[in-house]
User: Which sequence fits this backbone?
């Protein structure tokens, strides 16, 4: 069982991504054991999610951010396979629409926060507004810089309203990204995922790294922690993400509602 706490960013930690492990093989040698553990944790997740849904009181928000091709989609697919789809809503945040841009940056995000009984998964999130927006100079620093505090306040408000928050940064190496882009180009079944714009973003790797480091340092709190997940190997990544989710759900301890009194009830 990996010690997931070692991947958790603590408040006031200094983060240096170039130097933080991306390679799961260097951390866990026994891939088969990790995969077996992942399967058993996935079954636990399915049960816990059923209880969360039946209880209908608590809410869990899971946020994914990463460089391109780090595997956000793949993680969501493998971790939530078999979970009751009525209880999980995945929202992918793309380039904001005209309407979204006419509002504050949290407007579209707030609407997608899960209601009672639900797990909400964000594939990208409000953090894009201190990442892509910063690296591509879409807004000036005087606009994006204060957003770290705004995000912390927003997440604090969500926590106070009964939403548990977990945030995953899927961390791949620059070499692994290159390998995956090339695979997307070479493999016809993956080519649809290739976006030539991703190559432009790759040229800005250092700028993104800086933006991610600031996000991880400034927005890791006790109640809303970031995890830096070594993601060069899908099997290690999936295991870490599932472990954290299962641990969190266990802490939330959802219960099936008390059944109605059925003494003397006869089905005619
Ligand atoms: P995949 O990783 O599977 O390619 P994706 O999440 O990259 O999926 P795309 O449609 O390729 O989906 O890209 C969405 C784009 O929208 C990303 O480049 C992202 O940076 C951008 N985006 C998301 N939120 C914002 C935002 N608030 N402002 C500007 N751009 C944004
Ligand atoms: Mg993309």
Assistant:
């Amino acid at each position: 069982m990996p010690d997931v706490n070692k991947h958790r960013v603590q408040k006031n930690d200094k983060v240096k991504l170039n130097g933080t492990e991306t390679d799961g093989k260097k951390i866990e040698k026994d891939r088969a054991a990790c995969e077996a553990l992942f399967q058993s944790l996935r079954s636990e997740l399915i049960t816990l999610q059923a209880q969360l849904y039946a209880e209908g009181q608590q809410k869990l928000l899971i946020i994914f951010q990463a460089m391109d091709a780090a595997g956000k989609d793949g993680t969501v697919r493998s971790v939530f396979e078999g979970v009751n789809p009525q209880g999980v809503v995945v929202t992918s945040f793309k380039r904001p629409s005209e309407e979204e841009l006419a509002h504050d940056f949290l407007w579209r995000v707030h609407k997608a926060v899960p209601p009672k009984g639900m797990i909400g998964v964000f594939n990208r999130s409000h953090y894009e507004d201190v990442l892509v927006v910063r690296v591509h100079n879409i807004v000036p620093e005087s606009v994006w810089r204060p957003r770290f505090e705004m995000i912390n306040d927003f997440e604090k408000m969500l926590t106070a309203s009964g939403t548990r928050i977990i945030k995953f940064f899927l961390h791949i190496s620059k070499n692994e990204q290159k390998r995956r882009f090339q695979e997307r180009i070479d493999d016809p079944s993956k080519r649809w995922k290739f976006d030539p714009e991703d190559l432009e973003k790759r040229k800005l790797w250092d700028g993104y790294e800086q933006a991610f480091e600031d996000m991880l340092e400034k927005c890791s709190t006790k109640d809303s922690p970031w995890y830096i997940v070594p993601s060069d190997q899908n099997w290690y990544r999936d295991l870490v993400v599932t472990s954290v989710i299962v641990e969190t759900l266990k802490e939330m301890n959802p219960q099936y509602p008390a059944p109605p009194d059925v003494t003397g009830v006869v089905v005619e």
About this structure: Residues 6 and 227 are 9 Å apart (CA to CA). The chain has one domain: 4-252. The mean pLDDT is 97. Residues 68, 72-73, 92-96, 124, 128-129, 132-133, 193, 195 surround adenosine-5'-triphosphate (ligand 1) (CB under 6 Å).
